[in-house]
Write a structure and sequence with these properties.
With 220 residues, the chain is an all-alpha fold. It has 2 domains: 80 residues; 85 residues, no CATH class. 58% of the residues lie in helices and 0% in strands. Helix 9 runs parallel beside helix 11 and helix 10 crosses helix 11. The radius of gyration is 24 Å and the shape is globular. It starts with 29 loop residues before the first helix and ends in a 12-residue tail after the last helix. About 7% of the residues have low confidence.
Length: 220
């Protein structure tokens, strides 16, 4: 009888994108695996005692990370509680229970709305709302303009509730040459307006041969 070959130990295969040599925990739930992956990016935390500007910066950083990882709204809502501590954690636990008691579906949009109400003073929200109402593209390129536009949009709920209103506000803030190109057959939704604006900017850059030099913006 030929001698038996010794069994070759099988090396655990690391998760995709992971650099860790640790074996995979096959007993971990999908949520545990998701949380472990998320925490590996060292997401920022919030105590709730920070200034409004710091709270806004925290939310921007968290949202940017969520978008980079392509997390769903459901995943965002489940993960966000782990980044809240002290005052912020107690606030969210209380708010979450109240929303559930009212049978409100807790979406990422709902979380952000509640967050703005709690951590941004009325005066701060009013100032940001006024800044949004007067926002013009100016020297910003389209990507820079849309980032600022989207950030300030949160402080204008009367606009944010309607996609056509969002598109109108976005278009009206564009520089004159891009405005003219986009407004031909005026788009009635934000996605279409943004795509047209990017196309118009690319066309102007090509025509000028170098880079797009933004003209003086239209007056409010």
């Amino acid at each position: 009888m030929p001698p038996r070959r010794a069994a070759v130990p099988v090396r655990p295969v690391p998760e995709q994108g992971s650099t860790s040599n640790d074996p995979i925990d096959v007993t971990a739930t999908p949520m545990e695996t998701l949380l472990k992956q998320f925490q590996s990016f060292k997401p920022p935390t919030l105590k709730g005692t920070e200034s409004a500007i710091e709270c806004e910066s925290w939310l921007d950083d968290i949202e940017m990370l969520f978008e980079s990882l392509d997390y769903t709204n459901e995943q965002r809502v489940k993960l966000i509680g782990h980044q809240l501590h002290e005052v912020a954690k107690n606030w969210w636990l209380t708010t979450k229970r109240a929303l559930e008691h009212r049978s409100t579906e807790i979406t990422w949009k709902v979380f952000k709305s509640e967050f703005y109400q709690r951590f941004f003073p009325v005066s701060y929200r009013k100032d940001k709302g006024a800044e949004f109402a007067n926002l013009r593209q100016g020297q910003l390129n389209i990507e820079e303009y849309v980032v600022k536009f989207s950030t300030l949009l949160q402080f204008a709920p009367h606009v944010a509730e309607n996609d056509e209103s969002i598109a109108d506000q976005f278009i009206n803030g564009l520089n004159p040459d891009i405005f003219t190109l986009v407004n031909t057959g005026r788009p009635n939704n934000f996605a279409d307006a943004l795509n047209r604006a990017k196309g118009a900017e690319a066309r102007l850059i090509k025509q000028q041969g170098l880079s797009y030099a933004a003209p003086i913006p239209r007056p409010p």
